[in-house]
Structures are given as C-alpha cells and as structure tokens.
Design a protein that fits this description.
The protein is mainly α. The protein is 81% helix and 0% strand. It contains 6 helices and no strands.
Length: 150
Amino acid sequence: MKRIIGAIAALGVLAVGVVALTGFHGGCGWRGHGHDPARMSAFVTDRVDDLLDHVDASPEQRTRIHAVKDRMLAAATELHAGQDEAHQALLAEWKADAPDRARLHALVDARADAFRKLAHEAVDAGVEVHDALTPAQREKLTRKIERLHR
C-alpha cells in the first residue's frame, strides 16, 4: 500500500515539478511558447486523460481527478508567477558592487519554501487521486508507472 501511494505521490510531484520548472518557461523544447499556461494546461489535461482512459475511469472519477489536476495547475501557475521577480532580484544583486548575502539567502529560502509547499500539495493531491481509484485501477496505474520508470 505504501508503495502504491508513494508511486502516485511521486507521479504527482514529478508532474508538478515539470510544470513549475519547465512548463511555463520554454521548457520541453517549446521555446517561444513557455509563458502560455493554457497550452501547458492542455498538455497536462491530455496526459491525465490518457491515464484515466488507461484505467477505465468512471465519469465521477474523471471529475474528481480533473478537479485535483486543475487545483495543482493553478498552484503551479501561482508559484511560477514569482519566478520573474526572483530572477530580477538575483540579477540586481549580481550587478551590485557588494551583493547582499542576507537578501540572497532570504530569496532562496522564500523560493524553497514556496516549492516545498507545492510539493506537499502535490503529495496530498496524489493521495486524493489514490482514494478516487479502485484497487484494480491503482494496480493498473502502478504497473504503467513502474514501466515508465525502468
């Protein structure tokens, strides 16, 4: 049971990490399209739908899981909104004759805390998805995840 929850949580954290770190900033080879949350949302929705099709999810399960996905995408979008400001602050300190170490450390801590918060939300989202699926569906999804991680 812990292994299945761990696999679901890992998948959720991985998806959110990709969205947060690359999805909105020209990652995955999408240079020039990196600031399009709608495009990333469509991409993630397509992947979630593929997984829901794979486990033959019911309409109710699809609704529940899409709500989780939408909430996580919104959280990742919110986290990403602070990226440009953080980059500008880092660049300003770099350009300074005497960078403010305390300010830089505080900036790193704030971003790390924001990512940690999102990661915890992703774990909770993974548990919600786990609870929305039947044991047979979880087993089918676990096999797929294990194949992807080989």
